[in-house]
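During the no-cost extension, the postdoctoral fellow (Dr. R.K.) reprocessed legacy sequence entries with the updated structure-token encoder. One reprocessed record is reproduced below for audit purposes.
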Amino acid sequence: MAKDQEIATVEKRMDSRLHELAEQTEMARADFDDLSYSVQVQIIHKICPNDADDRKHLNTRLRELKQELSGPAPTPLERLLIERILTCWLEVNWYDSRAAGFSGSVQLGNYYQKRQDRAHRRYLSAVKALAQVRRLELPAIQVNIGQHQVNALTVQAPRGALRDPSKT
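Re-encoded structure tokens follow.
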């Protein structure tokens, strides 16, 4: 009987270790595949290093923002800009919280204020870039050069161009 309990304990430890390794592998793959995600995780750990619930809440909020900003069919460029916006959003909120709770020297206060201002400028720049890309609605162009040259131009209809005329 004791041998069965020992085997069960070892199996539980092995399952736990395998689960940890799977998570580490997934995180490493995510870091390699998506560097912006890696940066976001690092910022989240800076914001709340000791609170797993707060980290979970921030990750949930990031997913919600990503869905809201992405819309039904974002282009690759829109996806890149949305990731940038999310990263900058985290930075802005982190520096805002640092500045709000600051009670140190004037020099250190100025440092935090500058970081806050720079993060805010990057955030606004990313938001503006996404708005410009969406306003321009650039067509997808493909040019293949080789033995069989093919030029293709795909023009997308502007947003709202395919509205139901009965609703206007």
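Helices lie at 2-33, 35-47, 52-70, 76-100, 106-136. The two ends are 78 Å apart (CA to CA). The remaining legacy entries will be reprocessed before the final report is submitted.
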